[in-house]
């Protein structure tokens, strides 16, 4: 790999488990009805959340990611015929403290110990990202948390990827961009970043102009990929 100076991570689905909120509620006593449908609700929630960011990027009708997150959940709950305001508020509350994947703290710690700069580049709003980062205990292993709020458009706009060079003063070729979203990894690759697609579910490669240089089932090998192990 070319000389990498900065490792940049997508947040939701990459560092943080987007299914954690629904899974946690499904395990609570008295949530038997939700437990029976939670995988589909969670999948629909995520799908709509992403679709709404893409559509808003195309139309120029930007809003914060918290609004998109609420809108996606409302669609998912209605699709499951769940009219439960208390359930809705519980799920939204848990989204602020989504669990990080188990390998995340050690992986980020290894990158920092190896002298690399690290950052999040996310559609998430600053407040949402702050909550998730603090809850996961990874604040000290990140040099920056970059939100699309600063440019007013969602990924995969090049204006979002421009934020990395503006913050770190680096060329695209000096960045390893890591995402679990195939379309995001493709967008970053087309932009010129070195890319790693974390393909946790074994999906096929997206048919898009950019193609991530590497794939992996999780984040464990990131330090090795950048030559630290």
Supply the key terms.
alpha/beta, 6-stranded parallel β-sheet, Rossmann fold
Structure report:
- The relative contact order is 0.17.
- The protein is 46% helix and 12% strand.
- The chain folds into 2 domains: 138 residues, HAD superfamily/HAD-like (Rossmann fold); 76 residues, DNA polymerase, domain 1 (Orthogonal Bundle), CATH 1.10.150.240.
- The two termini are 13 Å apart.
- Helix 1 packs across helix 5 and helix 3 crosses helix 4.
Structural class: alpha/beta
Q: In what order do the strands lie side by side in the largest sheet?
A: 3-2-1-4-5-6
Q: Report the helical percentage.
A: 40-55%
Number of strands: 6
Q: Can you identify the CATH superfamily of the largest domain?
A: HAD superfamily/HAD-like
**How is the main sheet built?**
6 strands, parallel
Gyration radius, to the nearest Å?
17 Å
Low-confidence stretches: none
Mean pLDDT: 97
Please indicate the count of domains.
Answer: 2
Shape: globular
Which topology of the largest domain does CATH recognise?
Rossmann fold
CATH architecture designation of the largest domain: 3-Layer(aba) Sandwich
